[in-house]
UniProtKB/TrEMBL annotation:
Domain Cysteine-rich stretches: 5-85, 147-237
Coiled coil segments of this chain: none
Protein name: Heterodisulfide reductase subunit B
Record-linked Pfam families: CCG
GO molecular function: CoB--CoM heterodisulfide reductase activity
Keywords (A to Z) from UniProt: Oxidoreductase
Matches recorded under InterPro entries: Cys_rich_dom (IPR004017), HdrB/HdrD_reductase (IPR051278)
EC number assigned by the record: 1.8.98.1
Keyword Oxidoreductase: yes
Length: 294
């Protein structure tokens, strides 16, 4: 049985709780055991460009907590994943800052040696579970469903640090979507930022970045966006709902989280997957499902 410490970050429990419940339900079906470490704190992402020491202390504490239990870490949030990988990368170098951080970690009664592997949720499904095993759990395949996958920025870049997928021509997420029978369409703005980091700072530019992505996905005849990052999901779901309500004539393109998409094809109950928690109605996606396999 695969066992990981489960890092959900701050945004998911407060703003996208259905991502956690859907991910847990899917992973349980693949025999993945998740250890909840109550002492986990913020990944440090909000502090990364403000106070490097504070960023490292916050991030490395989480890594040390997982390492001290002898567990690799499974991460749902792209920003958390990128922040933790960045901290790991920085701590691999030797210097006064690293020594100071390690000293503070020891004062907490913890030890950090860089032994814990930081794994993205999609990577665990793709590399550890495997496409073949996923297909065996798919009881209802999607028919004539076009999906625009949103990789997000922080899992892909910088690729030398995250080591998630090819940053120019990624395929991991597309292949996972294809395992459900859905088609991952090619669209021009696929690897562009969703605009979420600018929300609250430059709302107009944030909305423009999102709108360009939506227009490109609609042009590619996508029926839904599919995300694996809470920030992207908030932008595509909550923010899009506000934009559509404020602008008459705008066409919404609903967004579904990947564990929701996969979970439905695995015959997991829609309520367990939290379909009703999404701001934009995604219930019509069930109409694309075929009958149970023989």
């Amino acid at each position: 049985m695969m066992r990981y410490s489960f890092f959900i970050g701050c945004q998911i429990p407060s703003r996208v709780p259905q991502y956690e419940t859907a991910a847990r339900a899917v992973l349980k079906n693949f025999g993945v055991e998740l250890a909840d470490i109550r002492q986990f704190n913020c990944c440090g992402y909000p502090m990364r460009n403000v106070d490097k020491k504070a960023f490292l202390l916050s991030s490395v504490k989480n890594l040390a907590l997982s390492e001290n239990q002898g567990l690799d870490m499974l991460v749902l949030c792209n920003c958390c994943f990128g922040a933790l990988k960045n901290a790991e990368h920085i701590m691999a170098e030797k210097g006064p800052l690293q020594d100071e951080v390690l000293g503070k970690i020891r004062e907490m009664g913890l030890n950090y040696q860089g032994k814990t592997r930081i794994r993205h949720y999609l990577s665990v499904l793709y590399h550890d579970t495997g496409i073949a095993a996923i297909k065996k759990q798919v009881h209802k395949t999607y028919k004539e469903l076009n999906i625009a996958v949103q990789y997000g920025c922080h899992a892909l870049r910088p690729s030398s640090v995250t080591q998630f997928d090819d940053p120019v021509a990624p395929s991991l997420f597309d292949e996972l979507v294809a395992a459900t029978g859905a088609k991952s369409v090619d669209w021009t703005n696929k690897l562009e930022c969703c605009g979420a980091p600018l929300m609250g700072t430059n709302d107009a530019l944030s909305a423009d970045l999102f709108s360009r992505k939506r227009e490109a996905a609609i042009k590619a005849e996508a029926d839904f966006f599919c995300t694996s990052c809470p920030y992207c999901q908030i932008q595509f779901d909550t923010v899009q709902q506000m934009l559509v309500e404020d602008s008459a004539g705008q066409k919404a393109l609903p967004s579904i989280l990947f564990p929701q998409l996969l979970g439905l094809s695995m015959n997991i109950d829609p309520q367990t997957l939290g379909l009703g928690a999404n701001k934009l109605d995604i219930s019509k996606i069930e109409s694309y499902l075929s009958k149970d396999k023989e």
